[in-house]
Amino acid sequence: MTRAIKRQDRLTAYAFIAPQLAGTVAFVLIPLVLVAWYSLHEWNVLANTFTFSGVDNYRQLAEDPTVPRVLRATLLFSAGLVIVNLSLALLLAVLLNQKLRGTTVFRVLFFSPVVVSLVAWTIVWRFMLQDNGGINSFLDAVGLDGPNWLRSGGTAMAAVIVVQVLKNVGLNMVLFLAALQGVPPELYEAARTDGANAWTVFRRITLPLISPTILLTSIITVVGSLQVFAQIAVLTEGGPGTSTTVLVYYLYQQAFQFHAFGYGATLSVLLFLIVLALTVVQWQLRKRWVFHES
Amino acid sequence: MRAKTTAYGILLVLCVPFVFPTWWMVTSSLKPNADIFGRSLWPSHVSFAAWHDVFTMQPFARQYLNSAYIAVVVTLGTLVVASMAGYAFARIRFRGQNALFLVVLSGLLIPSEVTIVPLFRIFNSLGLIDTHWPLILVPIFGAPSVLATFIMRQFFITLPVELEEAARMDGLTRAAIFRRIALPLARPALGAVAIFTFLTSWNLYLEPIVYLSSKSMFTLPQALTQFTDPYQGQLWNVQLSAASMTAIPVLIVFVIAQRQFIEGLAHTGLKG
Known about the structure:
By secondary structure, chain A is mainly α.
């Protein structure tokens, strides 16, 4: 290639990346710096005050009695979501991998909630989970007395987790299905010749071989779980009490309902640090735990 | 044989919580309000009254249009921005390439919830609160499109170099090679990016409720929760009618193009 062409190529490249680069700087990196700066300020939009307050917001964060409860709810939600989502996704994938007729139809049905509008999906579940709603009236029909799902702490958290799992488990199911289909059939045959039962084959052969996919899906699911907002806002509004108030919802309440923007920025910094820490931990895990990299 | 029957049985039972809510949403929206909490799986007589109320209680047609045009603009914008950036990062050598790629990738690490407070302040000082600009500009240029850029880059890396070299011999410029050779070949990747970008925009909830305050500017997810009586009681049949109207068109497109949807979404890593 001549110098002129190389030069022209380079200019084209800079022009091509310019919009994305400028956008990342303007809408991601500068706001990230600003959020740290705001967290050092007392800032009330309604009163129109913005004054430097040092680490006051961080002291408030350490002393706020709601914060431990919020972190507990966040942990409970994320852990519950990952465990239920990955187990169900794996179960569905194994069932769909049985070479039955009509699996395409089942795949479409299990996947369909992914494309249903998130708020529409949450609204219909809120409707069904009312004390006199669809779920309790069906339980009633078989002689069971269902709880008021969204009004007591334990069942509200369980409901939020299950509604979210059902919405998106189809994505992980498809990833697991692809991974299962990548396991060489000779391995299964060899194991069966050695007299291994189905469970041993699953544990000793299938699970290790699909471990890269398990790790990938757990990363996507954990990070996604930290960003859950609409489901909480529509189903429970963080309640009852603070039992389903996860970090993003608390951040929203502080910043946009109580107009404590400085404190909201501090909570954003906390959220960022948690996501960062998780990413680092998962990259370490990737090195140690995963059987092979595909 | 027996194992097969068991597998079918389990699959059918497991299907219920995935399919029943959508069924219940549509059928309940057609029930008169008095029967809304009834157990019947089909309305005793079909009533479209609530479907009509959706349009009289809120400027719902306008809100529908808002969501649709924002999602279309965001999708087209993202395709342009992400395919150009993805192509340059994948195919052209230039100074600072790796460093600049890392800068862009930071968008993948920083959830948009982290930056919502400063972004609100920026758009507030620009006088763009209660306009659609934040819902259009941030997804096209900011963190959400970084994932799209990443996917496009991964795709362009796999294209054989020979195709481009031949075009180069014919005297095509880099921009022409991109437009006439690389882009047409990238149709599957562009399709996947388009599907998840559209759905992400269509589902967006935090950003609209932060930025928008007047009903005629609302997007669908935000409007769906606003069907209440004057005492803040839920008007279930109206809410479910609006929810049905929001969900059904996308579901129909999904059923028609299920393969593209499933593969596209699963392999582009829409957040779980």
